[in-house]
């Protein structure tokens, strides 16, 4: 899964800092050049040609017209460590050469469709340039997240110095595939009050846990319960695409879940857990016994004190319905965002082309100061100000004033009064673990569930993952940390599922997150909590930069804008267990 997170070895790794060349148009040649960017990275998956039989991963097609075969280049056109996007007539594929052998697979990342030719190739896997997902080049299997699907692989052979690819046309069009999954061998009855596995939460941790169990051959009952009224959806998009419906954002359809015997109960809130009887009690009074329990309830908005909490049109962005209402109410109206979190700032950016005015209230002097540093934060604030966003920093809300129950004004503690027709509160979150207070499941003083490296709690048969946990983090000497990233929740779900099946696997992923505003994307990898210095390369004013975050003499995280694929490159180095020293990037 993208390298090993053992204790970093003091191996110096020079990181390429020069601005990347413009993408080469001819033949879609990878900007990686002749060699893998990190010659010392640990292999992650076997090398070799594509699958000898792509029908092993796709429905069996016997008719020749279901396949396309094309000569795509001369054998010497690619050198070791190079990738090229090639056209087969019925679609495109990614051709890779490593150690003199060719592989061919889907050319788009199944997560958001990023062109993998612009990513990072390193000893047996390719890492997406946008969000860091990794795929084995021999099997196409997803090895690090985000995303749920793997890549199709295609047959490659060399004849008379010509590289020939044979590919299934359907796979070329879809550019993704789901791993095979087992079916439940038990007789399913939704009224039965027992499930071998109960999953509370339908976010990425819960969904990946369920799918991993099926992919690994688990044939007993799986029940996934959620407070949400919708099937699993892509929550990070809520703040970036306010008009998107739950249907447009869905990760898996109800038909998909049914086909793989993953029972989904929506609008089903867990209110208590009895670990002695292994029972979950729900708000509607229904109880369910479990053999293994996975808690992935995520976070909830942090309470904020102000007068006028009965005023309408004040939102915490939690669901597609919230997002749609915010977009509708802000149309040609005055919008106020309380809080400068990534979600709040993304909402502010999304509303600038809808609302008459957008105001942002923050308690810090600079946005993102704690996460990205003051210089980067100021540069991003300038981007917002250039797009008509007004900031009221070092301030808090005192009162929401309504007229006939509808929001009309937001009063700040400074005395400033802002016109407001819709308000979005984004002042942080807390773990959604109140229902566990009467259980014996151990939580820290902030309400986070404490787990070991296998995502196990202190109670037998109870696992937890995602935003609700603190877990041992190897790069910080196994200090227990909370990393509330979408990508990391995927990892937790997989580790928990494998632990349930007795196939323990430690976390090996590099934390990776992203934020999109005004068509520009911030990418971030590593764990920069407590950084003491920031080394910036590039141009902050032009928002074309890479920022290295250091603790002492060690680079612990990196962020960038318009500097791809440097964040994925650094993730490769960190994921291999190597240390990047401060002097290497100064």
UniProtKB/TrEMBL annotation:
Pfam families: Pyr_redox_2, Reductase_C, Rieske
InterPro entries: FAD-oxidoreductase/Apoptosis, FAD/NAD-bd_sf, FAD/NAD-binding_dom, FAD/NAD-linked_Rdtase_dimer_sf, Reductase_C, Rieske_2Fe-2S, Rieske_2Fe-2S_sf
This protein's UniProt keywords: 2Fe-2S, FAD, Flavoprotein, Iron, Iron-sulfur, Metal-binding, Oxidoreductase
GO cellular component, as recorded: mitochondrion
GO molecular function, one term: oxidoreductase activity, acting on NAD(P)H
Region (Disordered): 24-55
GO BP annotation list: execution phase of apoptosis
Domain Rieske: from-to ranges: 70-165
Family from the record: Belongs to the FAD-dependent oxidoreductase family.
Protein name: Apoptosis-inducing factor 3
């Amino acid at each position: 899964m993208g390298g090993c997170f053992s204790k970093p070895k003091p191996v110096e790794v020079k990181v390429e800092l020069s601005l990347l060349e413009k993408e080469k148009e001819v033949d879609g040649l990878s900007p990686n050049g002749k060699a893998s960017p990190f010659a010392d990275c640990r292999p992650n998956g076997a090398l070799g040609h594509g699958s000898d039989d792509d029908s092993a991963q796709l429905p069996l097609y016997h008719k020749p017209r279901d396949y396309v075969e094309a000569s795509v280049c001369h054998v010497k056109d690619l050198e070791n460590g190079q990738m090229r996007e090639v056209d087969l007539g019925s679609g495109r594929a990614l051709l890779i050469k490593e150690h003199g052998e060719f592989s061919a697979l889907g050319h788009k990342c199944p997560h958001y469709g990023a062109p993998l030719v612009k990513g990072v190739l390193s000893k047996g896997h390719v890492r997406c340039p946008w969000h860091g997902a990794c795929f084995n080049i021999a099997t196409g299997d997803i090895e690090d997240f985000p995303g749920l699907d793997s890549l199709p692989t295609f047959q490659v052979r060399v004849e008379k110095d010509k590289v020939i690819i044979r590919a299934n046309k359907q796979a070329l069009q879809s550019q993704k595939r789901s791993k095979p999954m087992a079916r439940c061998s038990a007789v399913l009855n939704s009224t039965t009050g027992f499930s071998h596995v109960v999953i509370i939460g339908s976010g990425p941790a819960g969904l990946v846990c369920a799918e991993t169990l099926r992919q690994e051959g688990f044939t007993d009952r799986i029940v996934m319960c959620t407070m949400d009224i919708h099937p699993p959806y892509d929550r990070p998009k809520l703040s970036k695409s306010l008009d998107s419906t739950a249907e447009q954002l869905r990760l898996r359809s109800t038909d998909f879940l049914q086909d793989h015997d993953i029972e989904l109960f929506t609008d089903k809130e867990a209110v208590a857990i009895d670990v002695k009887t292994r029972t979950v009690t729900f708000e509607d009074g229904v109880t369910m016994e479990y053999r293994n329990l996975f808690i992935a309830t995520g976070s909830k908005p942090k309470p904020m004190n102000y007068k006028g909490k009965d005023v309408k049109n004040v939102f915490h962005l939690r669901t597609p319905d919230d997002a749609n209402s915010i977009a509708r109410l802000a149309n040609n109206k005055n919008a106020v965002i309380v809080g400068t979190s990534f979600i709040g700032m993304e909402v502010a950016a999304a509303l600038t082309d809808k609302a008459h005015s957008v105001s942002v209230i923050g308690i810090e002097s600079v946005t993102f100061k704690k996460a990205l540093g003051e210089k980067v934060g100021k540069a991003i604030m300038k981007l917002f100000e250039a797009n008509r966003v007004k900031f009221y920093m070092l301030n808090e809300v005192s009162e929401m004033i309504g007229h006939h129950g509808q929001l009309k004004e937001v009063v700040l503690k400074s005395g400033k009064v802002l016109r407001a027709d819709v308000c979005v509160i984004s002042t942080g979150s807390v773990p959604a673990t109140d229902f566990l207070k009467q259980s014996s499941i151990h939580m820290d003083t902030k309400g986070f569930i404490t787990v070991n490296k296998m995502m196990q709690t202190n109670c037998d048969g109870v696992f937890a993952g995602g935003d609700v946990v603190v877990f041992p983090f190897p790069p910080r000497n196994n200090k227990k940390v909370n990393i509330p990233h979408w990508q990391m929740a995927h990892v937790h779900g997989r580790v928990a599922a494998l632990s349930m099946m007795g196939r323990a696997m430690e976390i090996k992923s590099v934390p990776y997150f992203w934020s999109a505003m005004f068509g520009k994307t911030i990418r971030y990898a590593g764990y920069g909590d407590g950084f003491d210095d920031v080394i910036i390369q590039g141009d902050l004013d032009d928002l074309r930069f890479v920022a290295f975050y250091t603790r002492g003499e060690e680079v612990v995280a990196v962020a960038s804008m318009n500097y791809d694929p440097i964040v994925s490159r650094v993730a490769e180095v960190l994921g291999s267990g190597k240390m990047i020293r401060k002097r290497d990037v100064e």
